[in-house]
Amino acid sequence: MRISDFKAMTFDVYGTLIDWETGLLNELKPWTASHGLEIGDDAILEAFAQIESPVQAESPRMLYRDVLAETHRRLARKWGIAADDGAAEAFGASIARWPAFPDSAAALGYLKEHFTLAVLSNIDDASIQPSLDKLGRPFRHVFTAQQIGSYKPDRRNFEYAIAKLGQAGIAKKEILHVAQSLFHDHVPAQALGMTSAWIDRRAGKPGAGATAPLKNPPRVQFRFASMAALADAHRVELGA
């Protein structure tokens, strides 16, 4: 199996293309420190993962910026911080401040010359716009949780993307799903018979970061440490 066998790539954005863990820590560490709390990075990300996914499951039609705000409120309760709706709403708006990984835009710029690129993201339509700007807007399709009415790892999100790309003449077997999160992306993608590439942004780091840990990680067909490595692998296939 070769990367060049595919016609389209669907991408998770946050964690894969946008450095959401750095974005989260940039927001949450100063907040906790301002309340006299010394919480390590791993503990912050783990607490976020434990709360965010249940919020999404409870309210699958809630906009992601509101999911973040509610997650912030629950983190405040967990850590004994007084409720502050202004701080929660500011956290919900922080997506615009999350940085792109340094290699994302260049890799996507290369890949769009060879594949149809699509977003499949747990995000709302408005909040993703600053991220698309940072990535150079290489995507022909943008599929969001707001459009679908559910959050990954719900299989409906993947079925939606498969159906939409099918309408564009691209079969499921011609789609490569590219993502960092095993929990949100690779488990449901594999369950639906998709081929997937793991961008292992957390290689060498302990734990699962801001995503739920898995006892039995799924099998993936491709694994790369970065988007740059994925693009380079395709160049090698083409003999470039």
Characterise the protein shown here.
The chain is an alpha/beta fold and 240 residues long. The chain contains 10 helices and 6 strands; from the N terminus they run βαααααβαβααβαββα. The protein has helices spanning 20-34, 41-58, 64-79, 85-92, 104-111, 129-134, 145-148, 155-167, 182-191, 227-238; strands at residues 8-11, 116-121, 141-144, 175-179, 195-199, 222-224. Helix 3 crosses helix 4 and helix 5 (104-111) packs parallel to helix 10 (227-238). The two termini are 18 Å apart. The mean pLDDT is 96.
Describe the structure in brief.
The chain has 240 residues and is of the alpha/beta class. It is 46% helix and 11% strand.
What is the domain total for the residues?
2
Major sheet strand order:
3-2-1-4-5-6
Measured between the Cα atoms of the first and last residue, the distance is 18 Å
Mean pLDDT: 96
Q: Per DSSP, what share of the residues sits in E-state strands of 2 or more residues?
A: 5-15%
Query: Judging from the principal axes of the Cα atoms, what is the shape?
Result: globular
**Strand-and-helix sequence, N→C?**
EHHHHHEHEHHEHEEH
The helical percent reads 40-55%
* Main sheet properties: 6 strands, parallel
Question: What is the CATH C-level name of the largest domain?
Answer: Alpha Beta
CATH architecture of the largest domain: 3-Layer(aba) Sandwich
Please give the number of β-strands: 6
CATH topology of the largest domain: Rossmann fold
Q: How would you name the oligomeric state of the polypeptide chains in this document?
A: single chain
Determine the number of helices (DSSP H or I, runs of at least 4 residues): 10
Structural class: alpha/beta
Q: What's the Cα radius of gyration?
A: 18 Å
- So, the CATH homologous superfamily of the largest domain? HAD superfamily/HAD-like
